[in-house]
């Protein structure tokens, strides 16, 4: 069976659009007529096509679910699976519950694969951008262990926590970003439109201008004459840097530097170790073997250098080493996290300690981000005030000098 996008006419003469599941286009038209709808247009949904049959460009443009929508769908799936409903009925019920046509198409396509005999994880793999690698690996672990309901509940908690965390960061960054843009716009406007007219009066008077005023005039002329070219140069520089970072060797060096630069390293290490701990916790608690869980958890790390170190740590564990000693050899995990993991290994409760470690790392990261955002706001106000002060001083100094000459 497959998903079809339809446009049909109701008995009242209104046009209705939606998604219907059918074995063929002929079957889809028959189902629409049984519902009292007259088919006007019917097409096989392009989003329901398997990812393996698409061209690479189409694969990059495959449907993607926002974090909030993915969290909601995961919670609905977990609730219905825990209620004991068959998987195909669960997927159909969640698809009907949603008003989003893209989501309906994806879920109905996944249901079609399940009805063909594929596992849920394999069916979700047809939409890799909608369901990330970690998501699919966790579902596969739940299917293999026979505890899909518990795993889906844990996965729902995980996706909801991630969504809330991302929303919190977004909301916290709105004001600083607006403040930065307004500051740049205000200072640029003063430099381009206000300063030249005011300074021209003093230049026409023939008096010698102070050094600060001369520097401000030069900066104003430069921005007015080359501001557009400067923006173009910055855009080209950003594109060139992005292209350069796509090279594995350059990206590896840059990622290693991020883990060692002052001020940046604490945030970079915190983000990556927190993600690794939370991923490892959810995979091991789902019944996945530790070595396999470490492989998957290492793949979701965004830092290439740390990913290499974690591959070595996975190899050490595979050869019989302990988890906390292998992670300690990487040199980037905080001592508190290593002590908690060591305690879990000693007590035989590694799964529970990994969950506590993930919660601890998440709180530490949230506190760090909150501190950075709280410091960013007064810093921007201070910089904006300093810039305005320099502009005002550059304008007032010639006036004061003129008053002294007159007196």
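Sequence proposed for the structure above (407 residues):
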């Amino acid at each position: 069976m497959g998903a079809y996008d339809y446009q049909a006419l109701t008995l009242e003469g209104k046009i209705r659009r939606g998604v219907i599941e059918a074995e063929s286009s002929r079957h889809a038209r028959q189902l629409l007529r049984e519902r009292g709808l007259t088919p006007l247009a019917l097409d096989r949904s392009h989003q329901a096509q398997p990812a393996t049959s698409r061209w690479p460009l189409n694969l990059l443009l495959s449907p993607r679910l926002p974090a909030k929508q993915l969290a909601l769908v995961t919670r609905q799936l977990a609730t219905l699976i825990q209620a004991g409903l068959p998987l195909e009925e669960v997927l159909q019920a969640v698809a009907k519950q949603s008003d989003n046509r893209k989501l309906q198409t994806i879920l109905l396509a996944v249901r079609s694969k399940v009805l063909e005999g594929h596992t849920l994880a394999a069916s979700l793999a047809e939409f890799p951008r909608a369901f990330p690698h970690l998501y699919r690996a966790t579902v596969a672990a739940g299917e293999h262990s026979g505890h899909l309901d518990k795993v889906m509940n844990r996965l729902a908690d995980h996706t909801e926590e991630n969504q809330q965390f991302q929303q919190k960061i977004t909301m916290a960054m709105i004001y600083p970003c607006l403040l930065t843009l307004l500051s740049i716009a205000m200072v640029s406007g003063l430099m381009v439109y206000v300063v030249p007219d005011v300074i021209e009066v003093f230049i026409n008077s023939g008096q010698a201008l102070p050094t600060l005023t001369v520097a401000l005039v030069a900066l104003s002329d430069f921005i007015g004459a080359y501001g557009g070219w400067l923006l173009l140069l910055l855009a080209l520089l950003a594109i060139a840097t992005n292209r350069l970072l796509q090279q594995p060797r350059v990206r590896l060096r840059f990622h290693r530097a991020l883990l060692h630069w002052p001020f940046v390293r604490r945030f970079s290490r915190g983000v990556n170790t927190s993600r690794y701990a939370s991923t490892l916790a959810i995979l091991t608690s789902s019944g996945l073997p530790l070595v396999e869980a470490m492989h998957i958890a290492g793949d979701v790390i965004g830092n290439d250098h740390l990913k290499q170190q974690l591959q070595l740590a996975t190899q050490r564990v595979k050869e019989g080493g302990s988890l906390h000693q292998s992670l300690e050899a990487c040199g980037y995990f905080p001592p508190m996290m290593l002590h908690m993991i060591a305690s879990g290994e000693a007590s035989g409760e590694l799964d529970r300690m990994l969950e506590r470690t993930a919660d601890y790392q998440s709180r530490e990261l949230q506190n760090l981000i909150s501190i950075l955002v709280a410091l960013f706001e007064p810093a921007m106000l201070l910089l904006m005030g300093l810039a305005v002060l320099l502009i005002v001083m550059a304008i007032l100094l010639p006036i004061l000098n003129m008053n002294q000459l007159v007196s």
